[in-house]
């Protein structure tokens, strides 16, 4: 066992504190990764604060991990020492069910193993990327292409794949109008990716404060949702809307912005239900859908796509001691556009 430095929440109501956690010995199919950067996803905050249900504490979150392989198990073939690699939201799945066999491990019928707060195969609770090292089975480790800096790559492991996957699934591309609700960590990646795929992109943000950024990131249009005229102007416009908002919003009014056969895909995951007016769906053969991260193969594909198009996340790199301040800023929608922890500051 390896004892490594980490930042963890002692309970749902306390700030994260420096601590140590245990990593298992490197097994035959495992790789040991020296973590260089870990992104702060809003899901980390939902989880440690208990929004999605009770957790086991202390809990070190973090599922946007970028680092370097420093040791490999005897049977590892996919990675070697010195490789630049990433780990996202999953560290294992059953690998046998219908969905795993399709490469959609995030929908594993037996439940994928989350990078933190999940029961691992050995019965221990997984601990995430706010730490200096992690041991992961090789199949759940992806390669980070040379063209992407490790700090800007970290958020791609969740924010990137969570927006790439539905954009691909619902066919974002030339001639398609895509709306992105919320310009935070996921939202800003949705804008960059949809633009790179050739779609016409519109940001729907609470205000126009970040408009200049949104247009620079690749949006063609930018509207404030606090302005009622926005909903009149954009009625029946979009083929696809990606909702990245972490809080409940009035889904029915956003459904009205979809053209015939359009889909509103929720990736935002507030704990509260999202009520829908049936007529908002019926009146345009519209769909209201959801999507969870993406499979391992698709995550690798997304990283290659980002390298090819020169894409990474817009980040603010912070030392570990600023994690709790960063949480407050994320909760206040004051993030441009992802906080990334420099793992060398974890103590
Ligand atoms: P984030 O950086 O905090 O971005 C969320 C954005 O939503 C904010 O920047 C803000 O954008 C907008 N927003 C926040 N509160 C709002 C409110 N009350 N009303 C309207 N708009 C509001 O969060 P994130 O890391 O991108 O994550 C977003 C959500 O996706 C979270 O719920 C997270 O758990 C979830 N998530 C889901 C998956 C999945 O697999 N489905 C994966 C990762 C994350 P503006 O300031 O532009 O309005
Ligand atoms: Zn995440
Ligand atoms: Zn499975």
From TrEMBL:
GO MF terms on file? alcohol dehydrogenase (NADP+) activity; zinc ion binding
Annotated catalysed reactions: a primary alcohol + NADP(+) = an aldehyde + NADPH + H(+)
* The organism's place on the tree of life at top rank: Bacteria
For this protein, the record's Gene3D superfamilies field holds: Medium-chain alcohol dehydrogenases, catalytic domain (3.90.180.10), NAD(P)-binding Rossmann-like Domain (3.40.50.720)
Q: What stretch or stretches form a coiled coil here?
A: none
Statement: the UniProt record of this protein carries the keyword Zinc: yes
Q: Which cofactor is essential here?
A: Zn(2+)
Q: Which residues form the Enoyl reductase (ER) domain?
A: 11-341
Read off the Pfam families from this record. ADH_N (PF08240), ADH_zinc_N (PF00107)
Q: Which residues form the signal peptide?
A: none
Task: Enumerate the CDD domains for this protein.
Answer: CAD1
**Enzyme class, broadest EC rank:** oxidoreductase
This enzyme's EC code(s): 1.1.1.2
Give the UniProt keywords, A-Z: Metal-binding, Oxidoreductase, Zinc
Q: Per the UniProt record, which residue ranges are transmembrane?
A: none
The family classification in the record reads: Belongs to the zinc-containing alcohol dehydrogenase family.
Its name, as the record gives it, is: alcohol dehydrogenase (NADP(+))
């Amino acid at each position: 066992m390896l004892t490594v430095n980490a930042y963890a929440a002692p309970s749902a109501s306390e700030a994260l504190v420096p601590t140590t956690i245990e990593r298992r010995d490197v097994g035959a199919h495992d790789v040991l990764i020296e973590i260089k950067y870990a992104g702060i996803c809003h899901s980390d905050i939902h989880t440690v604060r208990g929004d999605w249900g009770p957790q086991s504490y202390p809990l070190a979150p973090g599922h946007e991990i970028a680092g370097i392989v420093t040791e490999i198990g005897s049977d590892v073939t996919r990675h070697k020492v010195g490789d630049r690699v990433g780990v996202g939201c999953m560290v294992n799945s059953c690998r046998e069910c219908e969905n795993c066999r399709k490469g959609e491990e995030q929908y594993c019928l037996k439940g994928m193993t989350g990078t933190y707060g999940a029961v691992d195969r050995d019965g221990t609770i997984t601990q995430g990327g706010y730490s200096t090292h992690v041991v992961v089975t090789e199949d759940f480790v992806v390669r980070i292409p040379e063209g992407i800096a490790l700090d800007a790559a970290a958020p791609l492991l969740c924010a990137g794949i969570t927006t790439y996957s539905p954009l691909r699934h619902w066919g974002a591309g030339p001639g398609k109008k895509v709306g992105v609700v919320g310009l935070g960590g996921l939202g800003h990646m949705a804008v960059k990716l949809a633009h790179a795929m050739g779609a016409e992109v519109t940001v729907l943000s609470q205000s126009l404060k970040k408009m200049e950024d949104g247009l620079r990131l690749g949006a063609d249009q930018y509207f404030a949702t606090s302005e009622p005229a926005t909903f009149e102007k954009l009625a029946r416009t979009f083929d696809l809307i990606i909702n990245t908002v972490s809080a409940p919003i009035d889904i029915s009014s956003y459904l009205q912005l979809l053209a015939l056969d359009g889909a509103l895909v929720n990736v935002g995951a507030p704990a509260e239900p999202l009520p829908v007016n049936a007529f908002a769906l019926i009146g345009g053969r519209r769909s209201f859908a959801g999507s969870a991260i993406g499979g391992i193969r698709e995550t690798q594909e997304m990283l290659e796509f980002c390298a090819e198009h020169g894409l990474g996340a817009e980040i603010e790199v912070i030392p570990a001691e600023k994690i709790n301040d960063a949480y407050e800023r994320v909760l206040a929608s004051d993030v441009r556009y992802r906080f990334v922890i420099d793992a060398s500051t974890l103590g």
